[in-house]
Design brief:
single chain, mainly beta, Ubiquitin-like (UB roll), Elongation Factor Tu (Ef-tu), domain 3, seven-stranded antiparallel sheet, six-stranded antiparallel sheet, 10 helices, 63 strands
């Protein structure tokens, strides 16, 4: 249930009503035929930052989605006018307070764009999507889990990232400090909002197209590079080992006692046990045909070639229409024919069902040249006893295998081909290994609707064998994976499934392979892996590690509204174990709608940033009628004209904190261009802080609360600051730079300012000098409580304040006017030989200063010229024209600058001021 509190009179709680409802919109429709004017809706507490009053359909949906307490506050119309007259950004902060304002701790990581060092691409779960304004170097956020795979034995990492909300102009793209155009194998594509990420409609592109959706993956955190250890331990080896009919292993070496190594029931692996006709290794030009024939031209005369029933292809690569396909594998041979032309034999090997061994035969649709290592094997005149067996009986001199002929039918050839024994038939070493398959796992991995189990296996030293002659030859391993579906609590479902993967190579360099298992049952899985077979030899190298295991499914999302998306494919450096830390970055400029509604243009203009932020449905949520666009543009132009350069009006920053209110963000934009954000009437304005020739309001005893004024005179600099240190972002290398003044001095107690949005050295120096000058030339603080016309003030306004801490102050209101003769509410004393000026508060928020002399009566003065506007003296007026008469020599003592204003109640505000001094701005034109 949601609680709705309707407040017809926000200042009288007895008028409030409370109801618990399911649907807030439906309840309000029931309570109000027409939604009342001057009404605001607040969420959980009545505060400006909690204002959720909907302005459009999206706002209504947002309101409906919220839970908690809703306050429906109906303001009186006069309150509404006063409310909008109050400055939106309260003058509770000095310029350096806004610049150094700490962000609320939202418990969420900020964008790397704002980090001082060690920037990288990272995930920011539930963090605010970056709102970039101006020109910055952006380090995009990861919006999907990174995943790696191996292509052509090299590791490739794919990522999907978000630069930020809206549209951007892309100036460059780097990996660290290196432009991606100079990096081999890198592909980057950047897409505007609402553009398919598989299309060629990119705003920036390097490398290959992305034509398929990225994978939605869940990566196993249990995998950390575990080694798949050798499956077997070699316990007996040598040339003395031979085999006899019936699956019996013997040795001519009397020192070997098989009982020391094996027991009944053990598993045993035999390798190197080949007898009879040797395998034929062929070399020369070769080709493949669409009817599954392999043709080899060679000068080798192979005996008994028609008796070979197997063909092994290693590194078999064929180029088909520009694509490379690998046809490697061990194939069944149905026939071998041979022709002789001159000294060259042409062998044609007909394969039986090769597609069942290697799917790539589906692409062989014509005759193609083949590059491969070719071996004819499995001759009917030979026997190959290499395999895994189970031991049934062990004696001192024999090992009897269980059902050897069932495991490997070549045992049946021993009596017919070799007379029942292989003794003396082979001088090569034979290996007897104790089988001990060593599984890694079980591990559980959860991912809804996952369709594929993907594994990356890494060979850090390569995969090869060095034979007795010192030649590098092929070696191989078999990796087995077992997997089983599980429910949400990890309970197994269904049968355990298994799949083997065969890897063969003679590479001495590190490489990797990616294995994929298409799941019969989608969803969560548990898995384990083992190296079930490793090739042997004189010096075998077969070490391999599990690098990554993923559950994957294709992403269902093809377009991303309102955000600019980047896809990248990065290749690991040669010989590296993995892709290095991700530091992909782009120089970008945000595109904004001109005046919030026009064409998109790349801009650094602070005024356009403020206008667009105000109109943003998620930030300012204002309408065009609530933003004085023309005034903001004129004020920005005034800043340019004053400094003589557009750099003073630039704003470049990433907003990444969802806890920042619109008022705070507007204040940050305004402050970067020497302005203040304010609301006047019901419109958002900007006000440029610059030297002021006139005061906007006059305060005397008539509009100040009696006895509230205090003045403090300072000797020295506030808080004993000995300088200013301002930190800004360098446009050259995007690093944070500190500018210190006075230069050449060791500062022990500087005022430290961390700026936001400033990326120009000249602007940063000007800002720093303004703050230092204010510290140096500020010598009087004035505090008082003013009546409600002070609501019209904003921070940094120049005002005229009569010194009501002294009895001799001459101020009040004008009672009557007759030509140039004014009758005042108080007596006015004139001292001969002194020049006096009368300061009048005008209706147009200015102060008119007119020289005056004594009149006939003690409460009369004579003006030397007429006032700029008619004075208000009618007796029916609540407030008449206020005045202060000051000696010419004392005029500067009454001029102040507002630094802070805090509401006390509906009718008064507490004002804190410092003396106004044109020297605050004396260095404004030294740098810009």
């Amino acid at each position: 249930m949601k609680r709705v509190i309707i407040c017809p009179d926000p200042y009288n709680q007895s008028t409030w009503s409370t109801a618990d409802v399911d649907d807030v919109s439906a309840y309000l429709k029931q309570q109000f035929t027409v939604f009342p004017q001057n009404t605001k809706i607040y969420h959980n507490s009545v505060a400006e930052e909690n204002d959720i009053t909907p302005l459009n359909v999206e706002g209504i949906k947002h309101l409906q989605a919220l839970k908690g307490t809703f306050y429906i506050v109906i303001y009186p119309s006069w309150i509404w006018y006063v409310y909008y007259a109050i400055v939106a950004i309260m003058a509770a902060y000095s310029v350096y307070s806004i610049l150094t304002m700490p962000k609320p701790d939202g418990g969420q990581p900020g964008s790397a764009n704002n980090e001082l060092a060690n920037r990288s691409n990272r995930m920011r779960v539930k963090g605010r999507v970056p709102d970039i304004f101006g020109n910055i170097r952006a380090y995009p956020d990861l919006i999907a889990v990174l995943y790696n795979s191996y292509e052509n034995d090299i590791e490739v990492e794919e990522s999907l990232m978000c630069i930020g909300r809206g549209f951007y102009q892309i100036h460059d793209c780097r990996d660290g400090d290196t432009d991606v155009n100079g990096i081999d194998g890198v592909s980057v594509s950047i897409y505007d909002p609402n553009v398919s990420i598989t299309s060629d409609n990119t705003i920036y592109k390097v490398g290959d197209d992305f034509t398929e959706l990225p994978l939605d993956v869940a990566k196993s955190s249990s995998i950390n590079g575990q080694s798949l250890v050798s499956p077997n331990d070699v316990v007996v080896s040598g040339t003395s080992i031979y085999f006899t009919t019936g699956g019996v292993i013997r040795s001519t070496d009397s020192s070997i006692d098989f009982r020391d190594f094996f027991s009944a029931g053990d598993g045993i692996a035999i390798s190197g046990a080949q007898f009879g006709v040797d395998n034929a290794v062929l070399s020369g030009p070769c080709s493949v045909t669409s009817d599954f024939k392999v043709s080899i031209d060679t000068d080798i005369d192979v005996p008994a070639y028609t008796d070979f029933k197997g063909l092994l292809l290693n590194g078999a690569n064929v180029d088909i229409a520009g694509n490379n396909y690998d046809l490697s594998g061990q194939y069944i041979v149905s026939s071998v024919t041979r022709t002789l032309v001159g000294s060259i034999y042409t062998y044609v090997v007909q394969l039986d069902s090769p597609k069942q061994v290697n799917y790539n035969w589906n692409y062989v649709d014509a005759d193609y040249d083949l590059t491969a290592g070719i071996t004819l094997n499995n001759n009917i005149g030979s026997a190959d006893l290499d395999d895994n067996y189970s031991i049934s009986i062990v004696t001192e001199t024999t090992v009897t295998l269980s059902k050897a002929s069932t495991v490997n039918s070549d045992w049946d050839k021993i009596p017919t081909l070799f007379g029942g024994t292989t003794q003396g038939l082979n001088d090569e070493t034979i290996y007897l290994e104790l089988i001990a398959n060593k599984w890694i796992g079980w591990f559980e991995l959860y991912h809804d609707a996952a369709t594929t189990l993907q594994m990356n296996v890494y060979f850090p030293q390569g995969l090869y064998n060095v034979n007795k002659d010192g030649k590098t030859t092929y070696n191989d391993v078999t990796i087995a994976v077992q997997y089983q579906s599980i429910d949400e609590t990890g309970n197994p479902i269904g049968a355990i499934q298994a799949q083997d993967f065969f890897v063969e190579s003679k590479s001495k360099s590190s490489f990797g392979r990616t294995f994929k298992v298409v799941l019969g049952t989608i969803g969560n899985q548990r898995f384990r892996l083992a190296k079930t077979k490793a090739g042997t030899g004189a010096n075998p190298v077969t070490e391999c590690k599990i690098k990554d295991v993923y559950l994957t499914k294709p992403f269902a999302k093809e377009t991303y509204p309102d955000v600019t998306v980047i896809r990248s494919r990065t290749v690991a450096t040669d010989g590296a174990l993995s892709v290095k830390e991700r530091v992909l970055n782009c120089r970008v400029t945000r595109k904004l709608k001109v005046d919030g509604t026009g064409a998109l243009v790349a801009t650094k203009d602070a005024g356009q940033a403020l206008i667009n932020m105000g109109l943003d449905q998620y930030i300012g949520r204002r309408s065009v009628t609530e933003i004085d666009i023309d005034q903001i543009k004129l004020e920005i132009q005034a800043v340019r004209d004053y400094f003589g350069s557009p750099v003073a009006t630039e704003f470049s920053y990433t907003f990444d904190d969802e806890n920042l209110s619109f008022e705070e963000q507007a204040g940050m934009i305004a402050s970067a261009c020497f302005c203040e954000a304010m609301r006047f009437g019901n419109k958002l304005h900007l006000k440029f802080e610059k030297p002021q020739d006139n005061s906007v309001l006059l305060f005397n005893h008539r509009n100040k609360l009696m006895g509230s004024e205090t003045r403090t005179f300072k000797f020295g600099i506030d808080k004993d600051y000995d300088g200013v240190e301002l930190e800004y972002t360098s446009p050259l290398d995007d690093k944070r730079v500190t500018y210190s003044i006075p230069s050449g001095s060791l500062l022990t107690n500087p005022l430290k300012i961390q700026s936001t949005g400033i990326r120009n050295e000249a602007v940063a120096k000007t800002r720093a000098w303004r703050e230092w000058n204010k510290l140096k030339f500020q010598n009087v603080n004035c505090e008082f409580t003013a009546l409600n016309e002070s609501d019209l003030l904003i921070r940094n306004d120049r005002i005229l304040v009569a010194d009501n801490t002294r009895l001799e102050t001459q101020d009040g209101e004008v009672v009557a006017i007759d030509g140039l003769i004014l009758t005042c509410s108080q007596d006015v004393d004139f001292v001969s030989a002194e020049t006096y000026y009368c300061h009048f508060q005008m209706q147009n928020a200015t102060v008119d200063i007119v020289e005056c002399t004594a009149g006939e009566m003690t409460n009369q003065i004579i003006l030397t010229r007429p006032p700029m506007q008619a004075l208000v003296v009618d007796p029916d007026r609540y407030v008449k024209t206020l005045y202060t008469v000051i000696k010419g020599a004392d005029s500067s003592k009454s001029i102040f600058m507002l630094t802070e204003m805090t509401p006390n109640d509906q009718m008064t505000n507490k004002l804190i001021c410092i003396n106004y001094d044109d020297r605050y701005y004396q260095n404004d034109h030294d740098f810009i």
